[in-house]
Amino acid sequence: MKLGRGLASFIWIFLPAKRKNIAVNNIRRCLNVSTEESARIAKESAIQCGEIFMEVFSFPKLKDNMQNHVKIIGLEHLTAYKNSSERGAVIMTCHSDNWELMGGAFAQNGIPLVGVAKKQKSEGADKFINEFRTLIGMHITYRSGVREMYKMLDEGHFIGLIMDQDVGRNDGVVVKFFNQATNFVTGAASMSRFRKIPIFPAFMHRNPDRTHTLEIFPPLYVEKTADKHADIKKMTQRLATLIETHIKKYPDEWFWLHDRWKSMRVEFEPEEVAEFEKILGIDNRADNFARVRAGD
């Protein structure tokens, strides 16, 4: 683990300044902290990737020792549903702490998890990570495999969806996230509504002794009315708020280097963003005042 942090610290030095600035500016805007504190959080969130990488390498060892490395709170929510339904469900999470290890923890505790992955540009890298995911007990499908996901839900599998990455304007819905109009993926809400299955929010954080705690929350169900779009948007907003709450609690562990608001800058006109802010009741004046008070 120390080696992983050391390597990541070395790589941090050579990361493009543009990428670092995106992370720092996002942190300042989202958390209302000083530039110095934003820089510290940005660096720590990047350096922890070294630990994540080393833990993935350790999957052959962790496979038989998972209970000592990941403490699970709320597993009974999943097992109770699993034992009472023939259908699967959705597990919703974000890129905080070690999301790869989270999938392994579910699989090693009897939850038939299907991880939905983005195909890597490098064929070798894609094969490497998927071999380790399979080794730890996960089944992997790509984001394009929607039919396979629904088929596996009907067979009783649990679909793991990481909800916090930016998507194109035609693939998401705009909700309020860190007091900003934010384009959010709708997969969890759409699956839940279409198949009448629950969504289980789940988040993991790292403990001081470098082990982890995985907390699983009670199931959420999408209300099904005549307005499909409104039903999906309402649940997506609820999930976005849960993710925001977790990030605020463990800000060092979220992957801030991701350009989370790119689609809002590039694919939406300023007038559209302003209209979304009005609809969502977003007022940034308080945030701007807080940043001034912080010396920025």
Describe the structure.
The protein has 296 residues and is an alpha/beta fold. The protein has one domain. Helices cover 53% and strands 16% of the residues. It contains 14 helices and nine strands. It has helices spanning 2-14, 17-31, 35-57, 59-62, 66-69, 75-84, 99-108, 123-135, 146-154, 187-195, 228-249, 262-266, 270-280, 285-293; strands at residues 70-73, 89-93, 113-117, 139-142, 158-162, 172-177, 180-185, 199-206, 212-216. The strands form two sheets. The chain has a seven-stranded mixed beta sheet with strand order 1-9-8-2-5-3-4, with helices on both faces. Strands 6-7 form a two-stranded antiparallel sheet. Helix 2 packs across helix 3.
Give the helix level as a range of percent: 40-55%
The chain-level structural class is alpha/beta
DSSP helix count? 14
Total count of domains: 1
Which regions are unreliable across 5 or more consecutive residues at pLDDT < 50? 288-295
Oligomeric state of the chains? single chain
Strand content: 15-25%
The tally of beta strands, per DSSP, is 9
Largest sheet: 7 strands, mixed
Distance from N terminus to C terminus (CA atoms, Å) equals 35 Å
Morphology: globular
Cross-sheet strand order for the largest sheet: 1-9-8-2-5-3-4
Q: Rounded to an integer, what's the Rg over CA atoms?
A: 19 Å
**Whole-number average pLDDT?**
92
SSE series? HHHHHEHEHEHEHEEEHEEHHHH
Question: Topology of this protein?
Answer:
Blueprint: H1 2-14, H2 17-31, H3 35-57, H4 59-62, H5 66-69, E1 70-73, H6 75-84, E2 89-93, H7 99-108, E3 113-117, H8 123-135, E4 139-142, H9 146-154, E5 158-162, E6 172-177, E7 180-185, H10 187-195, E8 199-206, E9 212-216, H11 228-249, H12 262-266, H13 270-280, H14 285-293
Parallel strand pairs: 1-9, 2-5, 2-8, 3-4, 3-5
Antiparallel strand pairs: 6-7, 8-9
Helix pairs in contact: 1-3, 2-3, 10-11
